[in-house]
Amino acid sequence: MSTAAPASALPSYDDVIARYEPVIGLETHVELGTVSKMFCGCATAFGAEPNTQVCPVCLGLPGSLPVVNEAAVRFAVLIGLALHCDIAPWCRFARKNYFYPDMPKNFQISQYDEPLCTDGYLDVEVDGEIHRVGITRVHMEEDTGKSLHVGGSTGRIHGATHSLVDYNRAGIPLVEIVTEPDVRSPEVARAYVDELRELIRALGVSDVRMEQGSLRCDANVSLRRRPAPGEPDAPFGTRTETKNLNSLRSVERAVRYEISRQSVLLDDGERIIQETRHFDESVGRTSSGRSKEEATDYRYFPEPDLTPLALSAEYVDELRASLPELPAARRVRLIAEHGYSARDLVDMRNAGVLDLVEQTVAAGAANPVAARKWWLNELARRAADAAVAPADLVITPADVARITVLIAGGELTDALARKVIDGVLAGEGTPDEVVSGRGLAIVADDGALTAAVDAAIAGAPDIAEKVRGGKLNAVGPLVGAVMKAMKGQADPAGIRALLLERLGVS
Amino acid sequence: MGITRDEVAHLARLARMSVTDAELDALAPQLEAILSAVARVAEVAAADIPPTSHAVPLTNVFRPDVARPSLSAADALAGAPAAEDGRFRVPRILDPDE
With 50 as the cut, is the pLDDT of residue A29 above it? Predict the structure, then answer.
């Protein structure tokens, strides 16, 4: 088999996994959701005009001095605590020296041998099985600027004639979260990033939008031969680092591709080159980046322009006490309190309605199942049709709770409830206002209903005779006729009972 | 202590400095002399004296998370050797043969 084998000629994944054990570690960069940058007061909003959120500090102009953003440190400690890390009682920032125009200072302020948080873990569930992923460290650093490469093909740095740099992102606070090489499959790698994203979202310290780059992931992958029974584990193989994976799907695909690619080389007796690689989403393959040989010589030293961080135990304990309910605990509670299944929770989370459902239950929904049903089936679809997040719909959890109560009380059918939702979304007011404004309540008024029932019986004497003769199921067409006459604003069960009563067979 | 001519050449390369052979011959012994002089600190630094990274014994110097006005793009780019589309224009980053 050639080492230049195209993806289609790669060995089957199951075959590879039977012979090799993948060893995977993940490095995740998360932009912290502060209002201002890590070391200066420039704004951090996404999408501003280029170089309009810059100042002498983040442009690295001579004479400027950085000062640490208090909120960034607090957010980083919260992340560390949520990941069960130890928080360093004393640590420093370090300069990472390199020449690349994404940092105008020619160094990045980071942390090196004294990270803020160390030695934690995150439990990740895949197919009902818990995988504990060790967290080596969480350290703070500043983000880099964004480069546009001009003159090459498809914006790549290779072949470019020059580059254009926007420093709005330079200096935005980041944490880098580094795992132990504990992950053993692409599925767990993906689930880890997913769970980490949920955790950080729950902490409210980042918007964790992978498509905007506020959470990005690098995957270190190596293979080792599976030991024969009774043999000890083989030592780790040489790893590659695939950079900047910007979706959950890419994390899984890139890791899977690297596993297959490396297996081909190892099968041929070749060695894996330690290097950074780039994942091309359009073809699903990784390709070699720049060689790391000299680039790793960053000549770190303690940042002399910043004082050390010495966080007191009281400060850390206060933050620990302020941690919100974390996703894993929340799942356990929702299953126990509301009777949802694990699958329901996944569906609601993926649809972006989990918070809304919980708020709807809290607002007095008829029951948790109804709250889930209306958000997941009806409102998530309406939001998708309108290309907005469900939370951005005009309808509130209190409105949905009220609708479920009206249905449970027999005042609305599901079909009428959808019309009420139409009205609320159209800005016609609360559900009760829409019900009265559009005249949508089920007509319980015996006068109109009785008249419609009598008309239906008179209009179909043959059917009426059958029912009188004891064939109760023959009443269906009469129910339909009454529903039609009532324009749907009646309760079918009530109509049926009334028909049978008038026909003398109830 | 001790710094070799090769190490000076390596550092020059990392710092993107063009240094001639003659300059390396001159710089290596000079840097060696400077490092030796600074290394004399080690003679008085006992094990109970921690290394210092900062001139004043301060910790936890913070600023509140408040946004302040930034420079305009025009001011930010005023000192740039070249600009294009509101961005800093920089020379090719990778050599064509890289």
Answer: yes
Domain ranges of chain A: 7-318, 325-438, 446-502
Q: Between 3.40.50.2300, 2.10.70.10, 1.10.20.60, 3.40.50.720, what CATH number should domain B1-47 receive?
A: 1.10.20.60
Are B88 and A51 in contact (CB < 8 Å)?
yes
Residue A313 CA to residue A309 CA, distance in Å, equals: 13
Give the pLDDT confidence score for residue A444 in this predicted structure: 63
Tokens of A405: 């109560």
DSSP 8-state secondary structure symbol assigned to residue A88: P
- Scan residues 54-93 of A and list those with Cβ closer than 8 Å to B: 54-56, 59, 61, 67-73, 90, 92
Angle between helices A186-203 and A327-338 (to 10 degrees): 90
The token pair that represents A76 in the structure block = 């980083």
Q: Does B74 touch chain A (CB under 8 A)?
A: no
pLDDT tens-digit series, residues B18-47? 999 999 999 999 999 999 998 888 888 778
pLDDT at A291: 54
Q: According to the CATH classification, is domain A446-502 in 3.30.1490?
A: no
Mean pLDDT computed over A456-468: 86
How far, in Å, CA of A205 to CA of A188, rounded?
Answer: 24
pTM equals: 0.82
* B18 interfacial to chain A (CB closer than 8 Å): no
Task: Please tell me which of the candidates B56, B58, B73 has its beta carbon nearest to residue A52.
Answer: B73
How confident is the model at residue A3, as a pLDDT? Answer: 47
Per-domain residue ranges of chain B: 1-47
Q: Which pLDDT value is given to residue B98?
A: 47
- Inter-chain residue contact B73 with A49, CB threshold 8 Å: yes
Q: Is A163 on the interface with B (CB under 8 A)?
A: yes
Distance CA A79, CA A464 (A): 71
Residues of B in contact with A104 (CB under 8 A): 88
Under DSSP, the state recorded for A143 is P
Query: In this complex, which of A92, A149, A307 lies closest to B61 when CB atoms are compared?
Result: A307
H or E element at residue A24: strand A20-31
Is B65 near chain A, with CB under 8 Å? yes
Find tokens 């584990």 and name the residue. A233
Nearest to A135 by CA among A175, A176, A179, A189: A179
Q: Is residue A348 left, alpha or beta, with left meaning phi > 0 and alpha meaning psi from -120 to 50?
A: alpha
ipTM of the complex: 0.86
- Nearest beta carbon to residue B89 from set A67, A97, A162: A162
